[in-house]
Structures are given as structure tokens and as C-alpha cells.
């Protein structure tokens, strides 16, 4: 077969939500014998979702069903909660603003919070999916393999291609079920690319998902010596705060070796912890805890309340990690960032947050365009429904649902946050399907371009892209964390009963 490529904060007593605690959402009483007994619909989850969204949601004022005056009686409120018995549909169809691309829910908060710590059910193969020319058929290309995973034990690597699963050709209608469905084990039907043509082969690779695979986001940290320059190269694939010490250690190595230039590879990094983004930026620029890294902006009601209470909504560069380790900073005035359409949220935050202070040279393609942050909420009424791992015993045992709504937007120190269409590169260079290269190698095209900019040697180098990646989606977009950017919300806001 031949197919052609197409190329958190303190509590404020003045801010309350007018709703009821979960166990108090009851139907209006009726006199005995006047109405037949009807089993009450359990709306515990819907009630938790509504009260949280009414208080915190960034677009609260734009969703009519979240208005403070939407309901005049408890029975009217309960009728609304009962109008959709599927909590997932209730959340997405009744509570989300039409322009919200990123808020989501999880039926199991434990699974979600494990994913945020870098633990997920995965076979360790990270890949992108693209379309054939003039076709709905899909092919996959391997981006990288997670160390110590099931995929790492198989003969599959970056630059490999596949066109089918279990003998079934991939297309737009079936790829989600075949690759991200219920089956933990599947067989990839491999292919090769030659002269702008993808050819199927007889090679197969069988992969099995592991229940708790942990991925260290510090994928590559190495020092390249080129023409007398010591260039630090860091490929960082997720902002996972459980690995902040590993990140700091990598910069410690760079600093000890006298690194003077840095290439920060965020091309496949969909985001994560804002705190990790602050630390990474401090390691690049400096541990200046008196300088603003970002300014948080909330919904109209919260923003006004915070400002009236003189709450500092700024986040500053940091001089130490959460474990009190001094930040190893390179103190650079220029950094080269490799970023693509798969770079989102916290990755974009680093670029935007550093931009007022140093020269950030973005090499690659336009980023995703996600400048809002979220918080994990669970059914913990007395904690404002904000998830706190130290309050696991206080979470309603009958409600394991979590929601991850966007609750604010981050601006940099000069007030810029207008990049919902993505951050445009300073030097445009797409990945080439026919020459993906080896990550961390001097000749890998995006890294090679950064090195040429650092050294000034580029006159005879060819950076022609013959088969640019045209991404449909990627394996990371089917994880619990996806392109999320989450903030620590230390002191939740109160939720008041009617």
C-alpha cells in the first residue's frame, strides 16, 4: 500500500455562594398521602459542580445558569440539578462557557491527582497522529519513548511510523477507540516513509499499558560543546512538581559546568504546574523573589473582592524550591525555546513570563494558545471544595468526581496575556517527518537551528522542511492532564449555605 503525505489565595468573608450543602439539596416537602412516593434523584455531584462553578469559574458571568439570581427557590434549583442525570453532560452542556476549550472533569479524583504527579496508565509510547493527503486515514509517528516503560522494552523508537492497530487501518473515526480505548494491549502495524510515500510493512509491535507508569519530565539534560561555547540542552516534557528537585539538579549541573547558553526544549510539553513554571523560569533568569513573574486575573466578582481586600495577586520569581533547596540559576539574558503546536499552558507561561526580562528566542511553530489556569475541585464543602491532599478523609466518600475548571488568566509583569491564538515563533521551523532526528543530538533539526543561532554558524546549513508535521492530535492529549495549567490554591474561599 502506498499513501502520500499531506504536508489560591486567602479566604474573604465578603464573598459567598448562595447555594446549599450537598446533603441539604432536598425536594420541597409534601403532606403525607397527597403525592405518590417517588424515589429522589441523587444530585450530589451536580450540586457540587454548580456551587463550585458559581463561585470560581472564570466565565461565571457569561453562563446564565451560573448567575447568582438564577434560582429563587430550592425546588427550582433542585429541578435544574435533576434536568441532567449524567454529571459529565451536566458539567459540559450546562455549566461551561461556549468558548471554553480546556475545562474538564474526572469521575475519579484519585486517578486525576495521580496523573498530575506524573503517574498514569500508559505503555510509554508518545506519538503524534497526522492525516494522509486527501483522505480520512491517519498515520502515527513516534515522538519519544518513556524510559523503563513497556514500549522501552520493544523495538520501537523515535521516527518510527504506524498506520494500523490490530490489522485495522487507522482513520478519523476509529483512532480514538483503537489507540485510547478500553484495550490495554494492542498491536501496531508499522510502516516506513520513503520519497514522500508511506509504505506498510509486515513488522508489528505489541504494547501493553501499565497501571501506574511514572514519567520523569526531565527527559534529557546534557551539555553540548560547540565552537568553544558550552550549551545546556534540556528537554522538559511536563511541568510536574514532584520532579522539581530533578529539574533543579539539572540546572545545578549546568551551572557547575559553566554553561553560558541554554536551549529549552518544550516542543511536546502540554503544561502542568504553575509553580514548576515559576521555578524553571527562575532557574533560567534568576532567583529574584521581588520581581513579578505573573499576575493572576479572576472572574469579575472575585477580582473585585481581591482588589478591595488588597490581596496581592502577583506571583514572583522564586529563590527556593518547595523543599527549600536554593534555586540553581544560570542568570541568562537570552534563552532559546523550542516550542510547537503541542506546547501549551505552562510552557507558554514560561515564554510569556520571561519575555519582559530577557530575550526569549522561540524556534518552532505556533503554540497551542492556553493562557488560563485551573484548580482541582472535589466535594469537600468545608474547604471550599478545593482539593487538598491532606484532607482526603474530609472528601465526601459518596462523591469521587473532580472538576478542573478554568478559574483565571495569567498576565506577565507588563500585563500581556493575549495569546489565545498561540505564540508565534521568532524563527519558524516545523518538524520534518522525513528527518525527525535524534532528540538531544546536535544534528536534530530544531536543536541544530538553535545551535546555529547561538554560534552564528548557519551560512551553509540546510533547514529545508520536506514533510512538515500536520498534527491531528497526540497521545498526550488523551491523558488526564492533557494541556492543563493548574495553580496551588492554598486558602480556599468560603461557600455559604442559604
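^ C-alpha cells above, recovered residues below v
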Amino acid at each position: 500500500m502506498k499513501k502520500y503525505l499531506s504536508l489560591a489565595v486567602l479566604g474573604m468573608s465578603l464573598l459567598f455562594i448562595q447555594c446549599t450543602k450537598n446533603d441539604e439539596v432536598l425536594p420541597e416537602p409534601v403532606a403525607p398521602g397527597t403525592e405518590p412516593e417517588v424515589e429522589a434523584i441523587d444530585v450530589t455531584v451536580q450540586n457540587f459542580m454548580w456551587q463550585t462553578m458559581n463561585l470560581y469559574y472564570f466565565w461565571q458571568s457569561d453562563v446564565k445558569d451560573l448567575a447568582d439570581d438564577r434560582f429563587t427557590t430550592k425546588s427550582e434549583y433542585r429541578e435544574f440539578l435533576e434536568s441532567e442525570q449524567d454529571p459529565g453532560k451536566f458539567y459540559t452542556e450546562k455549566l461551561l462557557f461556549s468558548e471554553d476549550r480546556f475545562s474538564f472533569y474526572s469521575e475519579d479524583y484519585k486517578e486525576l491527582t495521580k496523573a498530575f504527579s506524573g503517574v498514569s496508565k500508559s505503555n510509554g509510547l508518545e506519538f503524534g497522529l497526522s492525516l494522509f493527503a486527501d483522505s480520512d486515514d491517519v498515520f502515527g509517528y513516534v515522538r519519544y519513548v518513556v524510559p523503563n516503560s513497556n514500549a522501552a522494552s520493544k523495538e520501537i523508537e523515535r521516527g518510527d511510523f504506524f498506520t494500523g492497530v490490530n490489522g485495522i487501518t487507522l482513520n478519523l473515526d476509529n483512532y480514538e477507540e483503537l489507540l485510547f480505548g478500553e484495550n490495554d494491549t494492542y498491536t501496531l502495524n508499522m510502516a516506513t516513509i520513503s520519497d514522500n510515500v508511506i509504505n506498510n510493512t509486515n513488522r508489528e509491535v505489541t504494547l501493553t499499558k501499565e497501571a501506574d507508569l511514572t514519567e520523569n519530565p526531565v527527559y534529557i539534560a546534557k551539555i553540548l560543546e560547540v565552537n568553544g561555547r558550552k550549551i545546556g540542552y534540556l528537554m522538559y516534557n511536563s511541568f510536574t512538581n514532584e520532579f522539581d528537585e530533578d529539574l533543579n539538579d539539572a540546572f545545578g549541573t549546568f551551572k557547575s559546568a559553566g554553561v553560558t547558553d541554554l536551549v529549552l526544549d518544550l516542543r511536546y510539553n502540554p503544561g502542568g504546574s504553575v509553580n514548576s513554571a515559576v521555578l524553571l523560569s527562575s532557574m533560567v533568569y534568576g532567583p529574584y523573589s521581588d520581581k513579578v513573574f505573573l499576575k493572576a486575573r479572576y472572574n469579575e466578582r472575585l477580582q473585585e473582592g481581591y482588589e478591595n481586600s488588597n490581596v496581592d495577586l502577583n506571583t514572583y520569581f522564586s529563590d527556593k524550591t518547595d523543599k527549600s533547596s536554593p534555586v540553581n540559576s544560570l542568570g541568562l539574558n537570552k534563552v532559546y525555546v523550542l516550542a510547537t503546536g503541542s506546547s501549551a499552558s505552562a510552557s507558554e507561561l514560561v515564554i510569556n513570563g520571561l519575555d519582559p526580562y530577557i530575550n526569549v528566542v522561540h524556534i518552532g511553530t505556533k503554540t497551542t494558545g492556553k493562557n488560563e489556569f485551573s484548580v482541582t475541585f472535589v466535594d469537600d464543602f468545608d474547604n471550599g471544595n478545593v482539593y487538598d491532599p491532606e484532607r482526603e478523609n474530609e472528601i465526601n466518600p459518596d462523591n469521587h468526581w473532580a472538576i478542573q475548571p478554568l478559574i483565571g488568566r495569567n498576565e506577565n509583569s507588563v500585563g500581556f496575556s493575549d495569546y489565545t491564538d498561540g505564540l508565534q515563533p521568532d524563527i519558524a521551523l516545523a518538524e520534518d517527518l522525513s528527518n525527525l532526528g535524534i532528540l538531544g543530538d546536535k544534528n536534530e533539526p530544531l536543536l541544530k537551528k538553535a545551535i546555529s543561532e547561538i554560534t552564528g554558524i548557519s551560512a551553509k546549513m540546510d533547514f529545508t522542511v520536506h514533510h512538515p508535521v500536520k498534527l491531528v492530535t497526540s497521545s498526550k492529549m488523551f491523558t488526564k492532564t492533557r494541556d492543563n495549567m493548574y495553580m496551588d490554591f492554598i486558602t480556599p474561599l468560603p461557600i455559604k449555605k442559604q
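Residues 1-38 have pLDDT under 50 and may be disordered.
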